[in-house]
């Protein structure tokens, strides 16, 4: 955990907000406190979630005090309208070390719609402190978080793992000023998501010279609305890394105004198992910065999107927020 805390401290101080976000309590019907020291109603995050009545339509705030909560946490489908708030991204950690399944091994699993999290980190400790993943070690699926619910937003949250760190599986999601760390496919799935002002730390140095991948997006067909859109933000890495590889034939990822360090591979992208079908893949970079953002050696099939198509993807209200669900959630202050 020492390396995690160092990375969080260094990068967050460099880039993210130094203030603690608060919610607009006027729209919250109930507040529950979780405290490992016994000064709250619960000492377990999962027990606090379990206490929320099923299918409520009012927001419940679960305030999680500082500490390392060693547990797997699931928000089931019948527990919508939950706000999970820690004291800070560095001090409130939910962690576990399960591995072997992208669906079952996550430290945190969200199945409910209408969810907000802020000021805490989700960590999968499997292989996290392994300095070198050579042939004697096995890299397995070990998500820090798996997100199935629709209309979920995350503010000042950390997601830390090695492979499949953030399984952005299904639904519309909004990530703001988050820290996401991993090595292989560490943001992957079929989500329809916007990542705004986030920091991406690719710990690919543990691969012994092999390159890792930031994204593996799985859009299924040309009518599938899913895709990952990255607005602003920073990409750092301890070794070579690609921006993404195609998890499906219609994979869609856009980076705009993003700083890319020199370790981003010149080709930028991989079509993976869809060689010869790159015409259907939508990978695009717009106005990105840094030594890793040079376009001269990028794959020839990377797309230069028309202005109208680009706006549909990079305009929050056109891509994920057509019905105004983000404004309908409790506001940050």
From TrEMBL:
Pectinesterase catalytic domain segment(s): 32-305
EC number(s) per entry: 3.1.1.11
First-level EC class: hydrolase
Keyword field contains Metal-binding: no
Keyword field contains Signal: yes
Subcellular location: Secreted, Cell wall
UniProt keyword list: Aspartyl esterase, Cell wall, Hydrolase, Secreted, Signal
Pathway membership: Glycan metabolism; pectin degradation; 2-dehydro-3-deoxy-D-gluconate from pectin: step 1/5
Any matching Pfam family: Pectinesterase
Signal sequence coordinates: 1-23
Family: Belongs to the pectinesterase family.
PANTHER family named among the record's database cross-references: ACYL-COA THIOESTER HYDROLASE YBHC-RELATED (PTHR31321), PECTINESTERASE CATALYTIC DOMAIN-CONTAINING PROTEIN (PTHR31321:SF85)
Name of this chain's protein: pectinesterase
Organism: Hevea brasiliensis (Para rubber tree)
């Amino acid at each position: 955990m020492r390396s995690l805390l160092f990375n969080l401290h260094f990068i967050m101080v460099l880039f993210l907000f130094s203030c603690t976000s608060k919610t607009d309590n006027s729209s919250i019907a109930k507040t529950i406190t979780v405290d490992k020291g016994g000064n709250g109603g619960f000492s377990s995050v999962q027990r606090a979630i379990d206490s929320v009545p099923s299918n409520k339509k009012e927001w419940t705030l679960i305030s999680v005090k500082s500490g390392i909560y060693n547990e797997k946490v699931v928000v089931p489908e019948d527990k919508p309208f939950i706000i999970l708030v820690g004291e800070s991204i560095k001090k409130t950690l939910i962690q576990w070390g399960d591995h072997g399944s992208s669906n079952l091994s996550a430290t945190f699993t969200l199945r409910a719609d209408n969810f907000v999290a802020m000021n805490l980190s989700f960590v999968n400790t499997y292989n996290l402190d392994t300095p070198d993943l050579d042939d004697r070690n096995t890299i397995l699926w070990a998500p820090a978080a798996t997100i199935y619910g629709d209309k979920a937003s995350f503010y000042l949250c950390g997601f830390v793992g090695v492979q499949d760190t953030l399984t952005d599986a299904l639904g519309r999601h909004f990530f703001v000023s988050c820290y996401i760390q991993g090595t292989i496919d560490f943001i992957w799935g079929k989500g329809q998501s916007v990542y705004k002002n986030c920091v991406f730390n690719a710990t690919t140095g543990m691969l012994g010279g092999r390159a890792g991948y930031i994204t593996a997006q799985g859009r299924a067909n040309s009518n599938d609305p899913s895709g990952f859109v990255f607005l602003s933000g920073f990409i750092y890495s301890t070794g070579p890394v690609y921006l993404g590889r195609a998890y499906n034939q219609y994979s869609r990822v856009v980076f705009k105004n993003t700083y890319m360090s020199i370790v981003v591979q010149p080709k930028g992208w991989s079509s993976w198992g869809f060689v010869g079908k790159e015409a259907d893949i939508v990978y695009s970079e717009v106005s990105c910065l840094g030594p890793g953002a040079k376009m001269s050696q990028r794959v020839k099939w990377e797309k230069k999107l028309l202005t109208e198509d680009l706006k549909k993807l990079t305009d929050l209200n056109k891509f994920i927020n057509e019905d105004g669900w983000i404004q309908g959630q409790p506001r940050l202050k």
